[in-house]
Write a structure and sequence with these properties.
By secondary structure, this protein is an alpha+beta fold. It is 39% helix and 10% strand. It is globular and about 50 Å long.
Length: 157
């Protein structure tokens, strides 16, 4: 059984957007008339793709067979809470239409994990977690105390 450990009570909001929709927005902004986008900031995504952390966990549970959600003992609310609107981008560039949903992204990730036989141990190891990767490179003598490559060390891909 795959267990999802929730370290908060799951009440904070998170806006989620797929990298492909971010990339499409970037291209749309590059193609837009300068007067519409110059010195402007835009929230990218879909306003309806704001979810509570607990809702995201439930969607994952529903799409990953044999998974369950467990809340850490004493888990309280996370003070970081982000709920946004993407109306400004929708109004400024109506031709830009994000196509991905959180649910579709969950299915895509689930399928990729299965296709590549990605295990939890691999996922939480030094290949995927930056601080563990840095510590691995330091321990292997590839990085110096300032986190720069040591002379003569071939940089990792």
């Amino acid at each position: 059984m795959v267990k999802c450990l929730m370290k908060s009570d799951g009440t904070p909001w998170r806006p989620l957007v797929h990298i492909r929709d971010i990339s499409a927005a970037y291209l749309a902004i590059l193609d837009a008339p300068r007067k519409l986008v110059h010195n402007e900031a835009f929230n990218v995504g879909r306003s309806c793709e704001n979810y509570r952390v607990s809702e995201i966990a439930e969607m994952v549970r529903d799409h990953v067979p044999g998974s369950a959600i467990r809340y850490e003992d004493g888990a309280g609310p996370d003070k970081r809470c982000y709920r946004i609107t993407c109306e400004k981008l929708e109004q400024t560039l109506p031709a830009y239409q994000p196509v991905w949903t959180v649910e579709a992204g969950i299915k895509e990730l689930r399928d990729a994990y299965e296709d590549f036989a990605l295990t939890k141990d691999a996922f939480v190891g030094s290949d995927f977690l930056r601080i563990r990767r840095i510590n691995h490179l330091i321990d292997a003598g590839q990085l110096d105390d300032t986190l720069r490559w040591k002379d003569g060390v071939q940089k990792a891909a």
